[in-house]
Amino acid sequence: MGDMDSVELLETKFSRRTFIKGVIAVGATATATSQFLGRPGIAGAQTMAGSAARLITLRVNDQDRPVDVLPNETLAMTLRYRLNLTGTKLGCDRAECGACTVLVDGVNQYSCSMLTHQVRGRAVTTIEGLQNPDTGELSTVQQAVLEEGGFQCAFCAPGFIMSMTAMIDDNPNPTREEAAHALSGNLCRCCDYDKILTCAMRAAELARSV
Amino acid sequence: MSVNERKSQSDLKLIGTSRRKIEGLDKSTGRAVYTDDIVLPGMLHGKILRSPHPHARILSIDTSEAAALPGVHGVITGRDMPRVYGIIPWTPDEYPLCVDRVRYVGDGVAAVAAIDEDTAIRALALIRVEYEELPAFLDPHAALAADGSSPYVHDAKKDGWNGNITKRVHLEFGEVDGLMDASDVLVEDNYFFEGTTHTPIEPHCAIGLWQAGGGFQDADGATTGKLTVWSSTQVPHYLHRELSQVLGVDQAHVRVLQPLVGGAFGGKSEPFDLEFCVAKLSMVTGRPVKILYTREEVFYAHRGRHPFHMHYRTGATTDGKLTSVDAKILLDGGAYASFGLVTAYYSGQLLCAPYAMPAYRFDSTRVYTNKPACGPKRGHGSVQPRFAFEVQMDRLAEKLDLDPIEFRRRNFIGSDTRTINELRITSNGFLECLDAVERASGWRDRFRKLPFGRGLGIAGSTYISGTNYPIYPNEMPQSAVQMQIDRSGRVAVFSGASEIGQGCDSLVASIAAEELGVPLDYVRVMRGDTDFTPVDLGAYSSRVTFMLGNAAIDAATKLRKMVQEAVAAKWEVNPTEVLLAGGMAMWSSDTERQMPIKDAFNIAESMFGALGSMGSYNTPKDVHGEYRGATIGASPAYSFTAHVAEVEVDVESGMVEVKKIWVAHDCGRALNPILVEGQMEGSAYMGFGEALMEEQVYKDADHGRAGLLNAPSLLDYRIPTSLDTPELEALIVESIDPEGPYGAKEAGEGPLHPSIPAIANAIYDAIGVRMTRLPFSAPSVWKKIAEARTADTLRKPLVPAGDGTLTDNPARTAPAGAR
Question: Which of B44, B71, B295 lies nearest to residue A47, judging by beta carbons?
Answer without folding.
Answer: B71
